[in-house]
Each structure stands twice: as C-alpha cells, then as structure tokens.
Design brief:
7-stranded antiparallel β-sheet; 16 strands; Pnp Oxidase, Chain A; 5 helices; mainly beta; 220 residues
Length: 220
C-alpha cells in the first residue's frame, strides 16, 4: 500500500505510522511545578540528538503537565523505563489531575538529583538531569492539539554502578523498554544485541572495508 500521510487515507483501523517507526525509546520525564508537586510521565517521541554537548529531545501533544512545568522552571529529568518497571511506567501515563504526584500513584521512589530540582526515579538504573534549551511548536494538525518539541541540555547523568563492567555500560542488562505501535512494546536485552566494526575508508577514499568479527573496541 501507499497512502497520503497528511490526509491519513490509509483505510486501516489504526494509523500505522507509529508501528513503522520502531523501536522508540521511552523518555520517563520528571518535572516539578511551581507549587512543588512532582510530575512523572512517559514519552515515546524521545531520543538523544547530540553528545557534544549531550542533548535530549521529546515532544508533547498539547500542553500537558510536564510541558507546563518545564516551561515554568526550565528543568526536568529523564529516567530509563525498564522491563522491571513496565507496570509503573504504564500507570504513570494516566491522565490524572495536575495535583496528583505520579511517583506516589505508581508506587515509585523519588531520588534527589544533583544539578536540577526534579527528582529521578530511584528504581531506574539510569537517568539524565536536564536544563531546558529550547521549545519549538510543531505544525498544527487538522484535528487535535499540536505537538511541542522540547530540547534539553543534559547537565548530569546517573548510572547504577552495577551496570558498568570493564569501563563500559552494559546497556542490555538495563532491559530498557521501547515503544512500538498500537499498545505494543519491546525490551532491549543482551540476547538481542550485536556489535559491528565501522567501515574504514582507503587512503584514496574510493573503497572501504570492515574488519570481520565483533567490535574490537576501537572507535573509527
């Protein structure tokens, strides 16, 4: 099939767009309002966009509590949602009143951040402390509320020491969740990971070759 994405004339019972852009990491965003109430919500339109400086981005459909708090305070954290925390992550997505603390709602523990006011999820193995860099309103759709892109500079990183081995983070051992389409999720595991060496170009720039085998530990 081939359809007009803007007209959404796919003829399917549900829009297939998010089922094709997969997997998407989940940004479990924590913020604190001017009233001091903590907010926690998962966002699947989320990713890293730079490592020099380290920067994260997520987008919010409509002006949700997270966006309102971040605009007010300029700070947020993103904790990694894992297989072990899948039920808590799901519960924290409920559209509840702004006065509700989703940490308490989901039975999660707040851990103090070092560089920003919003706490991270203590049960999560990794988290990013962020300062708001910029927001960008995205084009308004024919129906529904427009999205706002939130770009944050990472000013602090927390990693559970148990994840670090021989100086490398064991990403698969976090068993991080990924969002797919519809109500589908996936999980990253050591069994689903593999490595490849980057290709090395010849001196004349006309050819390239890849060292066989797994990654040899050298960045090229």
């Amino acid at each position: 099939m081939h359809y007009d994405a803007l007209k959404r004339d796919h003829g399917l019972p549900h829009d297939p767009f998010k089922a094709l852009v997969v997997p998407r990491p989940i940004g479990w965003v924590s913020s604190v309002g001017r009233d001091g109430v903590a907010n926690l919500a998962p966002y699947s339109f989320f990713n890293a966009v730079s490592d020099r400086p380290p920067m994260l981005v997520f987008s919010s459909g409509g002006t949700k509590d997270s966006l309102r708090n971040i605009l007010d305070t300029g700070e947020f954290t993103c904790s990694i949602a894992t297989w072990a925390l899948r039920d808590q992550m799901n519960l924290s997505s409920a559209v509840v009143a702004a006065s509700v603390d989703e940490f308490a709602l989901a039975g999660l523990t707040k851990a103090a951040s070092r560089f920003v006011k919003p706490p991270r999820v203590a049960e999560s193995p990794a988290a990013f402390e962020c300062k708001l860099w910029q927001t960008l309103p995205l084009p308004a759709p024919p129906r529904g509320e427009p999205f706002t892109l939130v770009v944050g500079t990472v000013v602090g990183v927390y990693i559970d020491d148990a994840l670090i081995r021989d100086g490398l983070v064991q990403s698969g051992e976090m068993r991080a969740l990924a969002r797919l389409g519809y109500m589908d999720y996936s999980v990253l595991s050591p069994e689903s990971m593999f490595t490849m060496n980057r290709p090395l170009a010849s001196e004349d720039g006309l050819r390239a070759e890849v060292a066989p085998g797994p990654w040899d530990g050298v960045y090229r």
